[in-house]
Amino acid sequence: MKPIPSETTQSLHESTLRLIDHFMNLQIDGKKIQCPYFLNKATKVRAALGVLIGKGTPEDIEEEAKIISLKHHLDLASIPQEKLKEFLVDNNLGIDCSGLAYHILHQEVRATKAKPLKLFYPHAKSFFRKILVRLRPAENCSVETLVSDMNTKVVQLSQVTPGDMIILLGTGKDHDLNHILVIHAIEYNPLSPVIIHYTHALQWKRDGKYGGGVRKGHIEITDHNTSLLEQTWTENEKTGEENETFWRAKTAQRCEIRRLHAL
Amino acid sequence: MLISDMSVDILRTAILFALAATLSAFLWAPLLIKFLYKYKIQRHPEYDATLAMGARRTKYGVPIMGGLLIIITIIVITLLFNWERKFTWMPIAVMTLAALLGGLDDVMNNLIGKKRRIRKIKHVLKLIRVHKDWKQRLWLTLTLPWTFFKRTSLWLGSHPGKGLHVHERLIMQFLAGGIAAWWIYFKLGEHWRQIHIPFDGFLNIGWLIIPLIIFFVMFTANAVNFADGMDGLAGGALIITFAVLTLLSWMYGYNSMAYLNATATGALIAYTYFNIKPARFQMGDVGSLGMGALLAINTIVINQMLLLPFLAFIFYVEILSVIIQIGGRYLLGRRIFKMAPLHHHFELRGWSEEKTVMRFWILHAAFVILGLWIALY
To answer: Which InterPro entries match (chain B) (predicted)?
Structure first.
């Protein structure tokens, strides 16, 4: 059973919440910064370090930042806090949505079930690929992996619990981006969910190159009988179409709440 | 068992060789230092990320190619007093060849080299498809395996800078090892094809000695090269190894090899004196590749090839850390060590350079002594 901090709120395991907090507050040379968003689709780097393709843990990102600063002969201590995020983005350090989801879910399964997260990778058909996905599970985890029925099942809005994912397939104008949000806490009143708190990694267009990253938002459930898209999504104090996460959900070809079989 | 007077004489002579090498190296070291500083043969910070690491900033401006002190001293003393076709000719030739290769790299990196790039496979494949000149397309297609070799060899090395590329170094090291193997197999007779199997005896492995020599010469030369990254590390560890090799050569009756190893020990003592922190110069590829090759070949000559993992312990640990790091990067997608070679990992963990170097020396000494013990069986 997941711990219940208060009578009306359920959340992920404490260690998982700490992990999310770590992503929100990377510690680099004494400065705290939000982990940037990085999508490998643009660079298409293959066989690289996980941390350089948007799949690293917070520790990996912090350490890689130090190593890159050494290579570039930069003193991180002399870089102002606001420039530090630019340094990370310019060096392809960050996390993508499925990378973040993988690490959160992995930690949650480990904390609550005392075992590592094991996923099936439907795209891994050849023998070589099957070995590779076992060796590099985070790097090979994509939204398609998590949406697969072999790994997750659809749940109804009224049944939602922390650890569930909101999966958006084919979002945007051209329906070319898949996205995933992880539900980290839910407020109930008294038994049905009223507010869903989620964490995800995304770059809003209006935030520019350096504005994206790991962020939190919430969905206020006003009517349990309607779909998720009919509820009120709030992020960065923006609601409606101004909330780009909601816009992505609205333009998605498929929008589902799914739960890991392992949870 | 008493040691015969003749054996004692040989040991005395070996010690004299060591003392002569130390003294002569000390005598001409100031000249070398002056030369290296005058022509600014220094480590290039652009291609050496570690120079930005905290305490390592002091290494800016410290010249490389200090290994010339060891190599030239060994060559001169051996040519004058210990030249023997059957034994010392080959080690000196291999060491010189490897040192020349390293020296070329050092010089290219610092004085005459130009930055060169290797096309990505993807780029070449695209050119094969779209290039307007069919001859060019044909050429690119025919040389595709070569391009693939060049690209994949980059996995094994750091940023090549203006010096030799990894594939060029590998080929030249292969040639050096190949020449040594050919000479040993075809010119020097049956004795050289034997290896000592500890706790068992000697085994004649015939032609298999050829690939083994090539492998160990290349592997050990590069291993020492990787260890040459901290003041005193490679020099100190090599002193221990060559001192024990002197002892082993003497025990097994390889007199000229005992003298050669003693000469190397002596030259290394003088070198390390100037190389301990704060270093007046660093070994550079000229010294590390040369001494690595000499270490491998001298161990092979006295039939103790299988002891190399003990006699070159810390060097092998360093090169294995690099191999593991590369494996971790491509297979697991993460760094196993904070940085490779291993001494940088400990440095990033906060160990001081002195602490790392001395602990590595001690660990190395322990394994070399273990190797010596095994060699007695």
So the answer is: Glycosyl_transferase_4, PNAcMuramoyl-5peptid_Trfase, PNAcMuramoyl-5peptid_Trfase_CS
